[in-house]
C-alpha cells in the first residue's frame, strides 16, 4: 500500500507541539497523491471515474477539496447530500438500504438517481410516480473460493438478488415504463479474482437490461491495490472485457469507483498527548493514558503510533482513552513496543483519516478533536460541524 500514500511534510512534527488539544490533521498533499495514483490506475478502464464515499468524511471544507480535484461522490442520505450539494462534485450518486418518501422526493427533484436496495423500496418508488429512472444495488454471489474474511458476498445484508427478482423487475419495468439506469455494488474488500467476477456478473445483468448506463463498482480497494502492478494488469484485462461487451451490445457504459477508506485513511492523523502512565497489574504492561477517547472515535481502527520523542530506551505499552469505559483502548488493548514515554509527550496515530469522526460518539459528553488540514507545510483550522455544543456551568 506504500504507493497509495506518501509521508507527510516533515513540518507536521514541528507543528504538532503547538497543539494543546486532541486534533485530527488531514494531509492535503497526501490526499492529492492518493487521488493521482487511483486515477492513473482506474482510468486504464475507459470511461471510469473516481468518486468519494461521503460516509468517510463530513467536513465541508475537506469535501470541497475533493470536489476541486475532479471527483464525484456518493451519499447515503439527504443529510449527506446537503453537505455536498454546492461543493461542485462532477456527479452525485446515492445508495441506501432505506429512503423515506420525503428523501426519495428530494433526490428526484435534484435529478439524482437512487440505487435502491430492496424490491420493497422499488415498489415504494414506483407507487410515488415521481420519476421513471432508478438504479439497483445488486447482491453478488461471490464463489466461496474467492471469498475472504473482509469480503461480503452471500453473507452481505445488502442488495437485490437479480435472478430471484428478475420476473418482478421485468413486470415493474414494463408496467411503469421504468428506466433502470444504474447497477451498484459494494462487497467489502476485493481480490483481483473476485473483482473480475463481480464485473462479469454485472455485465451479464446489463446485457439483459438495455437501459443500463452506469455500473458503480463501489469501494473496498485496500486489498485490490495492495500490489499496484497486479492491479494495473487486472484493469487492462477488465477494459478489454468491457470493450468486447460494448462492441457486442452497441452501447457504452460508465464505470464508477467510490472508495472512502482508500482515499482518506492513510492521509489523516489523530494527535494526542500522554497525560499519565501506570502499570496494568493483570496484563503486566504500561498503560499510556491519552487525552482523547478511542472508544468515541472508532475503536476498530488499527494504527502504528509515531512518537516525536526518540528515546533509545523502549517499553511495552497499551494506549487507553479518557472515558470511564473499561474497554476504551487503541485496537482492543493491542500492545506496542515504543520509545520510552514520559507524561506530556505527543503521539501521532496514523490511519484515522476515514470514518473516525463520521462514526464518532460523545460518551461522557467529551468533545471530539479539533480538525486541521496540512497544506504546504502549514496547518489550517477546519470549520467543525460535529464537535458538539459547548458545556454550560450550572
From TrEMBL:
Domain of life from the UniProt record: Bacteria
Leader sequence residues: none
GO biological process terms on file: lysine biosynthetic process via diaminopimelate
UniProt xrefs under Pfam families: Orn_Arg_deC_N (PF02784)
Coiled coil: none
Domain spans labelled Orn/DAP/Arg decarboxylase 2 N-terminal: 43-263
Cofactor(s) it depends on: pyridoxal 5'-phosphate
Keyword terms of this UniProt record: Pyridoxal phosphate
GO-annotated molecular function: diaminopimelate decarboxylase activity
Keyword Phosphoprotein found: no
Protein name: Orn/DAP/Arg decarboxylase 2 N-terminal domain-containing protein
Amino acid at each position: 500500500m506504500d504507493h497509495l500514500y506518501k509521508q507527510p511534510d516533515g513540518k507536521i512534527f514541528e507543528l504538532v507541539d503547538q497543539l494543546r488539544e486532541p486534533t485530527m490533521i488531514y494531509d492535503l498533499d497526501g490526499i492529492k497523491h492518493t487521488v493521482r495514483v487511483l486515477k492513473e490506475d482506474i482510468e486504464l478502464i475507459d470511461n471510469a471515474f473516481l468518486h468519494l464515499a461521503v460516509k468517510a468524511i463530513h467536513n465541508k471544507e475537506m469535501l470541497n477539496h475533493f470536489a476541486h480535484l475532479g471527483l464525484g461522490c456518493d451519499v447515503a442520505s439527504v443529510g449527506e447530500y446537503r453537505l455536498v450539494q454546492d461543493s461542485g462534485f462532477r456527479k452525485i450518486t446515492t445508495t441506501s438500504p432505506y429512503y423515506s418518501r420525503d428523501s426519495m422526493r428530494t433526490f428526484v427533484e435534484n435529478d439524482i438517481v437512487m440505487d435502491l436496495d430492496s424490491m420493497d423500496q422499488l415498489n415504494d418508488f414506483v407507487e410515488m410516480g415521481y420519476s421513471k429512472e432508478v438504479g439497483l444495488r445488486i447482491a453478488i454471489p461471490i464463489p466461496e473460493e474467492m471469498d475472504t474474511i473482509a469480503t461480503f458476498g452471500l453473507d452481505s445484508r445488502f442488495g437485490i438478488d437479480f435472478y430471484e427478482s428478475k420476473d418482478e423487475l421485468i413486470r415493474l419495468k414494463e408496467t411503469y415504463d421504468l428506466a433502470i439506469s444504474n447497477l451498484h455494488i459494494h462487497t467489502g474488500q476485493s481480490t483481483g479474482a473476485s473483482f473480475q467476477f463481480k464485473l462479469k456478473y454485472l455485465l451479464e445483468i446489463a446485457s439483459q437490461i438495455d437501459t443500463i448506463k452506469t455500473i458503480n463498482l463501489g469501494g473496498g480497494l485496500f486489498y485490490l491495490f495492495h500490489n499496484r502492478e497486479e492491479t494495473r494488469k487486472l484493469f487492462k484485462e477488465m477494459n478489454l472485457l468491457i470493450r468486447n461487451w460494448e462492441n457486442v451490445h452497441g452501447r457504452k457504459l460508465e464505470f464508477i469507483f467510490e472508495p472512502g477508506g482508500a482515499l482518506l485513511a492513510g492521509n489523516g492523523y489523530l494527535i494526542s498527548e500522554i497525560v499519565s502512565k501506570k502499570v496494568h497489574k493483570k496484563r503486566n504492561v504500561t498503560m499510556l493514558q491519552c487525552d482523547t477517547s478511542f472508544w468515541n472515535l472508532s475503536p476498530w481502527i488499527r494504527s502504528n503510533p509515531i512518537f516525536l520523542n526518540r528515546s533509545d530506551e523502549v517499553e511495552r505499552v497499551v494506549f487507553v482513552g479518557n472515558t470511564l469505559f473499561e474497554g476504551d483502548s487503541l485496537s482492543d488493548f493491542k500492545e506496542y513496543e515504543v520509545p520510552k514515554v514520559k507524561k506530556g509527550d505527543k503521539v501521532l496515530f496514523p490511519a484515522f483519516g476515514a470514518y473516525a469522526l463520521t462514526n464518532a460518539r460523545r460518551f461522557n459528553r467529551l468533545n471530539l478533536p479539533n480538525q486541521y488540514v496540512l497544506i504546504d507545510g502549514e496547518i489550517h483550522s477546519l470549520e467543525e460541524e460535529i464537535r458538539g455544543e459547548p458545556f454550560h456551568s450550572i
